[in-house]
Amino acid sequence: MDTRIEQLPPINKPSPFWIAQAGGWVLFTVANLVLQQSVKFSFRWMVIEVMAGVTGFAATLLYRQLILRLGWQTKPPLRLILPVLVASILVSALWSMAFALIAKPLMWLLALEVAPFYHLFLGVFINGVILVIAWSAIYFAYQYFSKYTRNEAEKWRLQIALRDAQLGQLRAQVQPHFLFNALNNIRALILENPKQARSMITHLSDLLRYSLTSSNHEKTTLAQEIEITQDYLALMAIQYEDRLSTRIELPEALKSALIPPMLIQLLAENAIKHGVGKRPEGGAVQITADRQGDDLEITVANPGVLLPEAANLDDHLGVGLNNIRERLTLLYGDRAEFQITSEEGVVRSVVHLPLEWTDTR
């Protein structure tokens, strides 16, 4: 027994033009009938009035074909004023001519008083010019609005695609950045201290797992970012030994806040490389997260001094800060802020982000 279900072909919905075209001319015909029949009711005259709507419907369809053939829908509006006015008069004349040619024998068949040809022609032509001009205005307004909407949608689609590509490039830049340093440290420890080398490999494995999974997402939770930063700091603690100490302050209420992946890890890496690592006695790296109104403030502090001769701060402090600044701009625009200050022997990297939360908060 054949139990396959036959799939029905998709139903093609009518285009907005055909809906407006049919609806507009039905409305015109009904209004015309009401107006004429309110003066004197006659079923036979209703046929004549309906014919006026049918011929107008057909004439504007031919007019549309002319517009499409000449490509008027793509031309600037100001250049179309005169051609549309001339075309509207000609279309109205065509409409009136067709109506008069059809209405005259119909009136004879319906036993109505046959009006002169010019009377039937002028009866439609005078109002027809106004109607066709109105039809043209609505048609071209819709065309320009649709084109604008499509262009805007395409512009945003391209911007999103560009942003995603840039974010992907920046995330790919982060991964080898810390991986290279970690592998060098492990290589140095393999013969000297195998136990520490194994510990570093474990932390590095966690880092790589996080890097691979987070590369598919624009944001991660603050708790996850702090956890992976702790893995990174553990790697660095093995390298720097007693020269490096760390302190992390993360309020419980902020753990589900969203931030870009590897943000704090890059700030911590920068603090160690350009702060603690340049001091023979080492120093402490302090990471704090705090809420400032509707913003999240992340601060990474380390001992050190910003050199005043460093004209370009990003170039002076490395590729990591450039990466952070670009990702913040792509994700938040001007709603995020990143600055580095130096005061009383302490360098602070401060990031302000709009507070965003996971759905499970």
Defining traits:
Heat Shock Protein 90; 361 residues; disordered N terminus; alpha+beta
According to CATH, the fold-level topology of the largest domain is Heat Shock Protein 90
The fraction of residues assigned to DSSP E strands is 5-15%
Number of E strands: 7
- Over the alpha carbons, how many angstroms does the gyration radius reach? 37 Å
What is the CATH superfamily label of the largest domain?
Histidine kinase-like ATPase, C-terminal domain
Shape: rod-shaped
- List the total number of helices: 9
CATH architecture of the largest domain: 2-Layer Sandwich
Written as H for each helix and E for each strand, in order along the chain, the element string is HHHHHEHEEHEEHHEE
Task: Return the structural class.
Answer: alpha+beta
